[in-house]
Amino acid sequence: MVWFKRRHLIIGIILILFINQSMKATEFELSKFENFYNMIEFLSGWFPLNMEIFPDMVVESLDTLAMAFLGSLLGLVLALPLSFMAARNTSRFRFLYGFMRIGLSFLRSVPEIVFGLIFLTALGLGPFPAVLAIVLHNVGVLGKLISELIEAADDGPQDAMKSVGARRWIANLFAILPQIWPNVLSHYFYRFEVAIRTSLILGFIGGGGIGQQLFIHFKIFAYPSVAVDVLLIMIMVVVVDFVGSKIREMVI
Q1: DSSP category for residue 176
Q2: DSSP assignment, residue 174?
Q3: What is the tally of helices (H) and strands (E) in the chain?
Q4: Is the distance from CB of 58 to CB of 232 less than 8 angstroms?
Q5: CB neighbours of 175 closer than 8 A, spacing ≥ 6?
Q6: Is the pLDDT higher at 4 or at 21?
Q7: Residue 134 and residue 192: Cα distance in Å, rounded?
Q8: d(Cα 211, Cα 243) in Å, to the nearest integer?
Q9: Which of 14, 15, 57 is nearest to 216 (CA)?
Q10: Which of 89, 109, 197, 240 is most exposed by smallest CB count within 10 Å?
């Protein structure tokens, strides 16, 4: 019991209190599973799948994939230079470092659906406002994650390049980026997966793609069509995960 200390007991009690309060706030009761058969009955209505809509839903899925890909890629392109300014070891000015950290926190704190609603009022319905919403949120998330990778990078290669006369930005680019690139790709493909799910939610507010079709099918109780939508969403996520892991293996 050498490992056990009084503070562990206090932390345990605080944790139990938080769990208890959270369960009360969320009405977490296992007794509600008494009506579990309702869910089974609901899911049984999904079969057989309505395969007649499959070709049309594939097209909608490609639209969703395009929104997620473009939103996450443009987010990465914008986040990369900003993350160097938001990292303590590469930002030239303390003011710039603080400003960028606050800016990235702001972008990260606003949900994509809020950005989407704001852009919809100016740009109208369609995938374009959804892409912009995904871009802005991804800049905040990827900027923070990449800046932390930069701060954790080894200073050795950077110092070596500076000692032979390399400019600061060249040293940052060629000494740090190769070190963190596999992890950057890992973060990017994770955000790509998240962007697919975000595109579905943005489809509910008129962003187009399979998310909008899923909302319509739920609204008209077309559950066999809902099953097709869910199947295609699962396929998209699996394919993105597979392609991302293969590309990461090639880079490593």
Answers
A1: I
A2: I
A3: 11, 0
A4: yes
A5: 153, 157, 158, 160, 161
A6: 21
A7: 10
A8: 22
A9: 57
A10: 109
Write down the pLDDT at residue 170.
Answer: 80
Tell me the two tokens of residue 102: 């606050």
Instruction: Give CA–CA dist 68/192, Å, rounded.
Output: 6
**What is the chain's alpha carbon radius of gyration, rounded to the nearest angstrom?**
23
Q: Are 233 and 147 in contact (CB under 8 A)?
A: no
Distance CA 227, CA 47 (A): 8
Structure tokens at 169: 């930005």
Query: Around Cβ 237, how many Cβ atoms within 10 Å?
Result: 16
Which DSSP letter does residue 2 get? Answer: T
What is this structure's pTM? 0.83
d(CA 229, CA 215): 10
Distances (CA, A) of 32 to 24, 25, 144, 178: 14, 15, 40, 52
Tokens of 192: 């790509």
CA distance 117 to 140: 18
